Amino acid sequence: MRVVLADDSVLLREGIARLLSEAGLEVVAQAGDAADLLRKVNAHRPDVAVVDVRMPPTHTDEGLKAAAEIRERWPETGVLVLSQYVEEAYAVELLAGDAGGIGYLLKDRVADLDRFVDSVRRVGTGGSALDPEVVSRLLGRHRRDDPLAELTPRERDVLELMAEGRSNHAIAEGLVVTDRAVEKHVTSIFGKLGLPPTQDDHRRVLAVLTYLQA
Amino acid sequence: MTLRAQLSILAVLGVLLAALGTTLLLSSDMRDTSAWALASPFMMLSFIGVGLFAWWRRPHSGFGALMTAVGFVFFLSAPAASDAPALYGLGYLFGSLFLGTVVHMLLAFPEGRLDGRRERWLVGSVYGLVLGVNLVLLLLNGPLEDQAHPRNAYVVWDATGVAKVVLGIAEGLAVVLAAAVIATMVRRWRAASAPERRSLGPVLWTGAGLILGVGISLGLDLVGAGDTVAMVPDLVALACLLALPYVFLVGLGRRRWFRAGAIGSLIQRLSAAHRQGSVREALAEALGDPSLRLLYWLPRDQRYVDLEGRAVELPDAESGRGVTEVRAEGRRIAALVHDAALLDDPDLVEAAGAAASLALENERLGAELRARVEELEQSRAGIIAFGLAERRRFERDLHDGAQQRLVALGLQVGMARSKLREDPARAEGLLDGAREELRQAQQELRELARGLHPAVLTERGLAAAIAGLVERATVPVEVRAMPPERLPSAVETVAYFVVAEGLTNVAKYAGARHASVAVERINGHAVVEVRDDGVGGADPAVGSGLRGLADRVGAVDGRLEIVSPPGAGTVVRARIPCASS
């Protein structure tokens, strides 16, 4: 899998590049700002671009703008956005329309190497990766007649991991249960929330998010 | 010799010459018994007397001198009464010169100066005409007078015909000049402000009557009307001329009378005035100057403001506006900005200001309050903006500094963990790196916290906190003074930031070799000063640091002052109110 990295902090860029290389991914280019990133994505057409939100010159949301442009011009390249803070509004903006090939994670997550590498791979293969903090904030919102209240604790765990973009198999591994059990939970959750069933992981994410935001 | 002595000599001279003229008149065989001739010594004394009085009262105006000159010019025509041909001719030559001097005086009224080119040209023409035509008549043996007179001793060419033509042309010219003079006077009247008109009026109108009378009389002569008809305007002119000095005196008196009335009604109006701005209206009416403006003095800021509290500059000398200060109990409270013509009568303006001083002081307090409110609003907005900018700066510092380091630290710990078994040496190296990241993150957080509020300031006080700043400074800094006791905490905090920002600027821009810091208590104020010997030229309007500092100082009612002439170092000084507890 081929990766382009964009972050204005050389220190972090080099660190992430090293850990991705050691995990067997190929970092084909690194960029220090958004314009540089777009040039290098165009030149290398990587499977995934890992992008910091704040970059020169304005240090505001250059990364998000670049992500949207990459989605628009090179749909086959996935974008994983890293940020010091996670904002639901940014997540919604990023995932608007299609959660395939999109990820949005807190920067801190890089410390958990395996999960981070997994997220990069998932986004690189057209899946999605949503930070658990965004998910838990969406789940934590209070609403009237909350159907979420009807979920069992185990179903809630499954819903969270599902919203993060994980496959049934990954959820089963994470919760240490069988794939079959996860499938049962998923069916039950979709039933309780009144969502149309789907097998596609990132369509599932989108359905769950749409539901949570409503 | 004093002015008084000089004027006395002129007075004595005037009386002597008038006596001499009268003697000449009486000792001749009384050919000329016209009213003009008989009135001449009296007019001479009137003009000299009133002229000297005006000269004495207002020595800087040339008007008194001009009026005195009119009197003496009358004397020049006195020899015309003589029976000796040589003397008679001389008196005849200067017989009409007084008309030139009177026109000069009228057009120069009240300052005694001719302002425009047009005026100077006009006066010059009148002088030329009244001297020139008599000279021509003498030299060419023209007709001198209707009645019998001594022989003309000055004929050089006997050409009576030519002389008559010249006389006709001169009379025509005189009528035109009279019209031009009257037009100039009317224009002056129309351009005058109300207070100016009050002082111009009597003299200007009487003068116009004189010129009109002379003009019409000459005009009638020119068209050949009979002497009887021409006598009417002639007598009008004579009456106006006789009255002119006394009308001037009446004008002075009228002003005094007007002043008493104006102050009386001003006091009445002020006692009924409660609306904002009514003091100005009352004063404007009392002084007859609708353009009057009031400025209020703010002693704390050493500047004038208007009623709304907005800063206003006094008009400069060329603006045609006069300024009169109003004081009460020795303190400056306000200034009246008025028509410069009112400066002719400074007593009136001062009396009006004094009468209104209580009401002015009230309005001044209102204006001061409004100025203060506006200042507070500005400084509050400044503080909010400054606070937001500071927050953004801290967020950026955190984001780019400590947070990045912590992410990198997490990354290294994560990698070390994954290498722990298969490559312990590598893991050890990664952990060393992580420890370094941790140390730097701590350092950055410490500095950030100190920028928010240095703990040592609360715990150990200003002197200790400033000692810390001095130690970290990039140039040698001498601490010249520190208060021995603790100051109120808000004052200490602001003082600390003044020194911190001051020393930051020294390091960043000043190019200084040496700096000094002083904090002193003076007259209920904490005076904080940072001085350097660098390049100077610091401008608070440019750097956000100094501007933010001014807002911070303003928030505790203090004032920030920056003295930074190019090439001569910079002094940043804050005066913060700090009552002794």
Please give a structural write-up.
The complex is a heterodimer of chains A (214) and B (581). Chain A contains 10 helices and 6 strands; from the N terminus they run E-H-E-H-E-H-E-H-E-H-E-H-H-H-H-H. Chain A has helices at residues 10-22, 34-44, 62-73, 88-95, 113-124, 132-139, 153-164, 168-175, 179-193, 201-213, and strands at residues 2-6, 26-31, 48-52, 78-83, 102-106, 128-130. A 6-stranded parallel β-sheet of chain A has the order 2-1-3-4-5-6, with helices on both faces. In chain A, helix 6 (132-139) packs across helix 7, helix 7 (153-164) packs across helix 9 and helix 8 (168-175) packs across helix 9. Chain A starts with a strand and ends with a helix. The model of chain A has no long low-confidence stretch (mean pLDDT 87). Chain B is α+β, with helices and mostly antiparallel strands and 581 residues long. In chain B, the strands form 2 sheets. Chain B has a 5-stranded antiparallel β-sheet, with helices on one face. A 5-stranded mixed β-sheet of chain B has the order 6-7-8-10-9. In chain B, strand 4 and strand 5 (331-339) form a beta hairpin. In chain B, helix 6 (117-139) runs antiparallel to helix 7 (160-191). Chain B starts with a helix and ends with a strand. The model of chain B has no long low-confidence stretch (mean pLDDT 84).
What's the total number of strands of chain A?
Answer: 6
What structural class results from the helix and strand content of chain B? alpha+beta
Rg of chain A, rounded, reads 17 Å
Oligomer kind: heterodimer
- What composes the largest sheet of chain B? 5 strands, antiparallel
Mean pLDDT of chain B: 84
> How many strands, what sense, and barrel or not for the largest sheet of chain A?
6 strands, parallel
Radius of gyration of chain B: 42 Å
The amount of helix of chain A comes to 40-55%
* Succession of helices and strands of chain B: HHHHHHHHHHEEEEEHHHHHEHEEHEE
Globally, the shape of chain B reads elongated
Number of helices of chain B: 17
Kindly report the spatial arrangement of strands forming the biggest sheet of chain B.
3-2-1-5-4
